[in-house]
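Collaborator request, handled under Task 6.
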Amino acid sequence: MANVITTVASFSTATTTITTPKEYAWDFINNDFLLVDGKFQIVTGTEALKVWILKALNTPSGRYKAYSSNYGSAMDNLIGHSLSAALIESEAKRIVWECIGINSHILGITGFTVDMSGDILTVNFTAETDQGEVIISDV
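Structure tokens returned to the collaborator:
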């Protein structure tokens, strides 16, 4: 009986803490911080993750020294090549996941669609996160 008590007592009671993501609010129309009365605004939770995802996808990887080498998207590599629609969709999904999957809050993507009109590639998907779903459209 003593062995059972010793074994039960040795289990860890540590818990995992999920932090709430925070980002500065971003005005994607004017491509600048969203200010209210001249002050930066902070968004949290799914809104913060949406800002992070959109900024990461709209930042070309490897172009700016201000960002780490694993931040940003290589989506522009798909433009200008005569690839099949199936290959473009597959590569776009891979590129998006490589871009946003580095964020520990993002668990996966669902509902991924691609639209290629001329030289414009648009993706839509839902990011499954530890904060809830984040719908990303027309990126």
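The cover message to the collaborator said: "The chain has three helices and nine strands. The mean pLDDT is 87. Please let us know whether this matches your experimental observations."
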